[in-house]
Every structure is written in C-alpha cells, then in structure tokens.
Specification:
Distance between the termini of chain A: 32 Å
CATH topology of the largest domain in chain A: Rossmann fold
CATH class of the largest domain in chain A: Alpha Beta
Largest interface: B-C, 40 and 51 residues
Number of helices of chain B: 11
Number of domains of chain A: 2
Oligomer: heterotrimer
Radius of gyration of chain B: 21 Å
Chains: A alpha/beta (254), B mainly alpha (238), C alpha/beta (309)
Shape of chain B: globular
Chain lengths: 254, 238, 309
Amino acid sequence: MLDARNIHHGYGAETVFESVSLSVTPGEVVAIIGPSGVGKSTLLRLLALFDSPNRGTIEYGDTDVWDVSEQRRLEFRRRIGMVFQEASLFDASVRRNAEYGLRVRQPWTDRLRHEVASLVGRTNGTGAEIEALETVGLGEKVEQDVSSLSGGEAQRVAFARALAYDPEILLLDEPTSDLDPRNTALIEDAVLEARDRDIGVVVATHDMHQAERIADRVAVFLENDIIEVGRTEDVFDDPDDERTRKFIDGELIY
Amino acid sequence: MPLELATVSPLFAEFPFEWNYIRSIVRVSLYVSLVAVALSTLFSLPIALLIGFKEFRGKTLLTSIINTGMGFPSVVVGLIVLFAVSGQGPLGSLDLVFTPEAMILSQFVLATPVITGVSLAAVSSVEQNVRDAAYAMGGTRFDVALVTIKEARYGIATALLAGFGRAISEVGSVLIVGGNIAGADGESYTRTLTTAIQLEARQGRFETAMILGAILVVLVLLVNAIVVRLGSGNGGYR
Amino acid sequence: MPIHRREMLAGIGGGATIGLAGCTSSSDGGDDDEPEISGETITLTTTTSTYDTGLIDELNAPFEDRYGVTVDTVSQGTGAALETGRSGDSDVVMVHARSLEDEFIEDGYGVNRRDVMFNDFVVVGTSDDPAGITGGNDVEAALTTIAEKGATFVSRGDDSGTHAKELELWDAAGVGEFGEWYREAGQGMSEVIMQVGQTGDYTLADRGSFLSMQSEIDLDIHVEGPIEGGPELLANPYGIVAVNPAVHDGVEYDLSMAYIGYLTGPEGREIIEEYTLEGEQLFFPEAISEEPNFQQYVPEDWAPSEADD
C-alpha cells in the first residue's frame, strides 16, 4: 500500500541513504532494525511525507504522492499515523491530545464551535479518542493534564493520538526506547491490536528482540542502506547477508 | 508646599464635568491602546511564526533589529507618524492628524516590535517535535501554526501585556500626533491618560493628575490580572 | 471631503467603545433647533498660555452649540502652532507673537488676520524678592538688576511667544551675557511658573497664565504690565489667522472665518470680557472698535507701495 522505491536522501553534500526500497501492506508489521543514527528516522519522516526524497518515488496505492497537489497529498498524509521516540504531546489534557487528529479533520465551523464550547466548560469527545485511549489502557485518565503523566503513560497517549483517527498506516519511530518493560509490553500489545485491525505498521527499532516479538517482516538498515528484507524468522534464523548475521549476533558494533 | 490635599474639593467644584472628563479620557485611552494592540497582534504573530521557524540569511540581524525596536523612543515614532499623516505626508489625504486613529497608528508602531520580539522568543521555544506531531497527525501548515501559538500561549500573553503596557503608558507620540484635544464640554477627543496627566501637572493641578495616574496604574494592573486569569484557566485548551 | 472621512473614522471609534461602561455621551448641549451645519470639525492650534487659562473652552462651547461645529483645540507653543498651520494640519491659528504672525501671512500661509484681545506680561517671582526689583515698574531696570545680582531667572526657552518677548526685553535691557543664574526650561508657561514656585526666583509670564495658577503657587508680581500701569513694552496682543485655502485646499476656510467672526464679534467680546479667574479679568477684547484699525489685517511694516512691485 505504501511503497518507497529507490529513494535517495541527504542534506547538502551528506548522504543519509543511497537507494532504499521498502513497502508495507495492510495488516502487517514491518520492523526496520539497525543501529542508532543510520537514518531510520529520516526514512520514517519521508514515509510520513514530511519531505520529498531527493531521488526515487514514494507511492500510496499506485499514486506518486509527490506528483499530486498539496491538497491531495494532505489526504494521503491523513491516512498515516505516527509516533515519535519522544511523546511530543501538546500542553493540554489527555483528551485534547487524543482527539487532535480528529479535530483537524473536521470542518472549520465544527472546530470553532468546539473551541468556544471548551472555553465555557468541558466538551464531549467523539468517542473514538476514548476507544483509542482504552486500547493503551488509559481510559481512566481522559481528563487529566498530560503534565501529570509518567513517561510511559505519555508515550501511550501519543500512541492513542495516532490511533484515534483510524489510520491505514502507522509509523513508529523507536516508540519504546525510553520505556520500562511494562509500558513497552503495553505498546507492543497495542501494535498487534492495530495490525489485527488491518493497519499496516512500520516500526523503527534498535531492539532486535522487539522486532522478533512483533514484526512479520524485518528490514535490516546498515551502512546507509537496507541490505536485507525478509520474513522475521528467515532474517533472524538464516540471514542472506553476512553483515546481518554479525549485527544480530552482536559482533558488528557501530 | 502649597499643594496640600485640602485643595482637592475646591478644585473639583471648579470642574463640574470632572468625572465625565475622566471617564472620556479613560475611554479614549482604552480604545486607542486596545485597538493598537489588537491590530499589532494580528500583524506581529504571523511575523513571529515566520521568523521563528524559517531559516534564512539575515535572520539574526532581523531579530536584533526587532529587539532594538522594543526600545525605540516614542517621541521619534510620534514625529515619524506625524510626518506620515500630516497634510504633506504620504498618508495626508486620509486627514488623520489629531485624531484617535493617528494615535492608534503611532501606538501600533510602538507596540509591534515589543509584541513581535517577545512572541518570537515564545514561539521559538516551542519544541520542533511537538510541531512535527501536529503535522504528522494530519495538520495543515496553518494547524501547525495554531498549535505553536497554543503551546506558546503564556509567552504570547506576556507579549500582549508588554505591548499594551508600552502603548497605554507612553506619552510622547500620542501627544504629537493626537494633539491632546478635549472638547469645550470636557469630553476627551484625543486626550489620553498620559497626555492628560502631563497637562494637569503642567497646570499645577496635581490632584487631578494623581487621580489620573492612579487610574492608569489600576487599568494596567487590571488588564494584567485578566490576561493572567485567562492564561491560568488554560485558555480553553482542555 | 476630508471631514467626511474623519466623521466616518470617528463613527468607527464610537462604535468600538460603546461597550465601555455606558459612558458614551454625545454633545447634548441643549441644541433643540438643529444647527445648519452639523457634525463638522475645525482644528485650532493655539498657545498653551491661552489654553491653560480655560478661556478657549469658555469661548468654544457657545460656538459649538450655535454652529454645530466642533473645535479641536491643540495647545502648542506659538512656533509649533504656526508650523502646524503651515503644513495644513490646522484650519485656524491663534497666537501672540506679531512678528511670527506677519511672517506666516507674508509667506502666504495665513489670510485675514484679526486682533482678538490682549493682556500683558508681568515679571513674577518669589515673594521674598531676592534681587529687590519691586516698585517702579521699570522692566529694563528690573532685568538688569536680576542679571547683576545673579538671581535665578527661568526662561521658557521653547520658541514660544512669551520666549520671543522675553528675549526682546533682555535686548532692550542691554543684557547680553547669561550666566548660571539663567535657566532655560524648554517647557510651557504653567510648568515654568511651577518651577519658579519651587526652585527659582523670577520669570516672565503672561498675566493670564499667572492668574490662573496663582492659587497653586506662592509668587508675586514684581513688575506690572500696561494693564496695571506698567510699560507698553509688556503688552501682549493675541491675533487670529485663518490658514490660506489657496495653499492648502483641505482646510475648512469658511468655518474658520465663521469662528474668527464669532471670536471677534459681540458675543466673543462679551465672553472674553467677562472671563475672570480669582476675581480678575484675564484678557481684554480689542476686536470691536469704532475707530478703524487697518493695521490688524496686514503685516506691521506693510505699505501699499510694496504691492506694486
């Protein structure tokens, strides 16, 4: 559904990756593994349509997303959800965060009415954000301010925020690297639940065990390139590339 | 010291329109400063957002020009605005000399660097990853700007307060472009609290000047309190 | 058309402020019968010495009621008042420096000058009179004594009519050297009188300003002007000039002439005559006279032969 074909990206003279191809289809989890700083985040930002790649194409369905109008591209963007390594929440209540994606999709009149109503008192949400918060086990904390949350809870709110508007694609950039095991498990469960709802998930992680636990396919990102893509058990048990084997065995230190 | 408080009552007897006079002055002051600050905000916020998140050559220079503008002497602004709106100036055909609108113009010029500068500092402190999150959730560039303003709301409120304080308490430019006019019936036309204080003090009516001064301080405190109150109520961002 | 724009802007202003404490008030000054002209405005620039006495408000109120014309009064120094007229930003100018008024007319910016009223200048100072100048009403001698004794003299120093007169007097007294005793305030008449009351010894003031402030300060008149038998040198005549509509087509010439007519007519005369502060008359009208006084219309040194050039 979302396909990156031979994309090259860099800033000025510095190349981040040479020629990367990656695709994700509904109902699968693709893990991008590799050491920190190889460009996994840059790749996810390109998939989230923040920037256009220097070369190569990104297609949604069969459409080149950088070959259409800004308005059309916005429609594609709105089918994608994203969670960052940091929770990056807005300074507001849990509800306001979780419903944000839903609000920006509403017509201006509704948004304005909602803003005015929230000045007077609390407003009722659409229900979808509550459902998303319940998925990450935060149904109880809807009205709390995000400043009162722990780091793990904040990251789960960020996950619910991306889930609430029911995206087709979910991009997760090291979503659990700062979290304790319990919160990591909660997020991983939520990822699997999203997959079961036919969402295509791309998760960038440096944690190979996480990839093994949740991914259907694994892409190995080493030395400015994706050197190997395959079914999770194939890549872990019998890698094609010698560098993959060394990386998985921990011999390759970057 | 011939200016004892005992002279207050005969002085009021001399001015049957005293309270009408003071009320109309307060009204003119508030009208001019609030409109100037409102217009300046509409002008300054987009600029602050633009400068804050665009990288371009001369950004540092532009920022320091804005910061310098915060301390720009108000009488000089008054002179420049007077030249602009005077019969011979580029805006002469609008016939704005000695009108409240000319004072709004000069206070706009005075408040804009303050509001832009302080807002710029506030929006620049909003973290890029929060803006990214708004964009990634399907926000347009305008939505991202809105989120930035909301995240920076305390800083922006401070900017508005600073701009309002600068506008309502300055005397130099409004005196020059407004002319400190009050009608024969004591109804202020372009007389503000500050220019009235100046006039009353010059005529030795220190009691009236003190009353006006107290009103000015109370007004500024009141506006501060209202803005702080709105801010701490989390500004409808709940 | 500028008036219409101004009206419109004023309308916007009014609308925006209606919400404020119900303190909107209109000019409901008993105008039961509609005036012929209504809602128009003229701008008068005048000196602080006339404005601060309160006479202008007293004169303007009946005029505004009768004609429905608002007079926006801006009080400046004589120099600034004329300069504002020169740039067409005021419609009519009332000042008290004949030489500057003449220049204004000769340069073509003003037309139809009329004498309005006069009062006089007085030398005022602290009641202890440190230089001992009281008595005799000889202003030249008094100024010479102040200079010799080095008593503090506060000058307006602001290019106003009073300042011009003061410099003329020093000249007449033959004092050309000013020491530390001479201070230029650069402020209005009232501020200078306040300053003398607090830190100085003497100043030259117009009688109107001095009388209007007498209750606020502890100063005496040491040299009287012509009104109280002093020298003619201290006379202080006020003139009014309309801004020339041929130079600035935006000025309200006809309304200005109506205002000048009112001020120099019987009604204006009566108000000026009856205006008192602390029981004393401040100004003496001189516009109406059975004797012709052609001098008031033209520059003082003007002669018909010049017109033939």
